[in-house]
Structures are given as C-alpha cells and as structure tokens.
Write a sequence for this structure.
C-alpha cells in the first residue's frame, strides 16, 4: 500500500461496516420520526430521533479516526441506542415501527460486536505485544 492512500482505505472493513450499521439504524429511526410527524402532526415526534441521529452519526464518524476513546464512546452510544430501539419493539404501536426497531437494535448490537473483533481492535491500537 502506498503512502498516498486515504485513511478510509486503511480503515478495516469491520469498522466501516460498524459505522454503516450505526448510521443506518439511526437514519431509519429518523425516517420513522419524520413519517410520524407528517402523518400525525406535532414536531415533537422528531426531536428524539434527531438527537439520536446526531449522536450516533458523530460516534460513527469518529470511528474512522482510529482513536481508542472514540471507539469506546461509539460502543456506549450503541448500547444505549439499542436499548432505546428495543423500547419501540416492546411498546404497543404500529407493527412496522416495531419491526424496524428490532432490525435497528440488531444492527446496533452487531456494530458493537464488530468493534470488538481483532482487526478493529488493532486499528484502534488495542492489540499488540504485551496487551
């Protein structure tokens, strides 16, 4: 690999897929909020999905830097957001919101698993001699 390669090409596939899974779930959650806003009215149904989208988006973008602290931040955000998604699964509501909540929760947990793989840990400097 040459020295002129970009940092995203040096980022392991596991980290890129984890960032995509986090962002995809947050985007789906935001789209559900927007659909609810358009059908039910009241902008308050978009507030929480927007905050979640911004938090998870910043955590997912931070993964590309390779800093161990941002990996831990992303994992904590992912666990908290997965619990929130599961609240929508267990709540009485539209069936499609419950299904999307389950898929988003599964994708978020999968992102945490991917961030604990060997290639991801070595990218963040957590694997090596004496560690």
């Amino acid at each position: 690999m040459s020295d002129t390669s970009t940092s995203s090409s040096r980022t392991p596939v596991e980290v890129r897929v984890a960032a995509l899974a986090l962002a995809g779930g947050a985007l789906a959650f935001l789209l559900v909020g927007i659909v609810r806003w358009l059908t039910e009215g009241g902008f308050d149904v978009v507030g929480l999905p927007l905050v979640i989208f911004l938090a998870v988006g910043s955590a997912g973008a931070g993964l590309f830097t390779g800093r161990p602290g941002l990996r831990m931040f992303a994992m904590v955000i992912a666990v908290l957001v997965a619990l929130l998604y599961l609240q929508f699964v267990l709540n009485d509501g539209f069936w499609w919101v419950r299904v999307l909540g389950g898929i988003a929760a599964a994708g978020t947990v999968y992102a945490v698993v991917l961030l604990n793989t060997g290639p991801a840990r070595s990218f963040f400097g957590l694997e090596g001699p004496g560690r």
Remarks:
- Helices lie at 7-10, 13-40, 44-62, 68-90, 95-114, 118-123.
